[in-house]
Design a protein that fits this description.
The protein is an alpha+beta fold. It contains 3 helices and 5 strands, in the order ααβαββββ. Helices cover 32% and strands 31% of the residues. A 5-stranded mixed beta sheet has the order 1-5-4-3-2. Helix 1 runs antiparallel to helix 2.
């Protein structure tokens, strides 16, 4: 987990979020989970699945997408997600990140916080926003 001795700049936090998301996209879920002070990963993955592949399959029945019970075994769908815009809260301690699936913005966004801990500052999250 990345720990800063002083409150990190927004660009530093965004770099950690981008690294986290790159690991997710590559299916390296356990590494992604260790990069930040993480909430339960299964909830995050299920929300991303529901907001992307499952929503897309509803619109396009011929998509060949994995069925709902396969989303945990075959993580290849994560490679079709990408980060869109970062939106910082007015206090600078929270950032919401929009997500795209096959270049289309999805209904799920991820929220991250910058929080002080005993040894320093960490990024926590992500929360899922609908």
């Amino acid at each position: 987990m990345k720990i800063w001795t002083e409150r990190p700049a927004a660009t530093d936090v965004e770099a950690v979020v981008r690294g986290y998301f790159s690991l997710l996209r590559a299916g390296r879920v356990l590494e992604a989970e260790r990069l930040i002070d993480h909430y339960p990963i299964r909830h995050v993955l299920k929300s991303l699945w529901t907001g992307s592949v499952e929503a897309s399959a509803d619109e396009d029945e011929a998509s060949g997408s994995p069925v709902a019970d396969e989303w945990e075994q075959d993580l290849s769908w994560l490679g079709e997600l990408d980060l869109a815009d970062f939106h910082w809260g007015h206090t600078g301690s929270h950032v919401t990140v929009e997500i795209t699936y096959r270049t289309q913005l999805i209904e799920v966004a991820l929220g991250f916080w910058v929080r002080p801990t005993g040894p320093g500052w960490v990024v926590t999250g992500p929360a899922t926003y609908w």
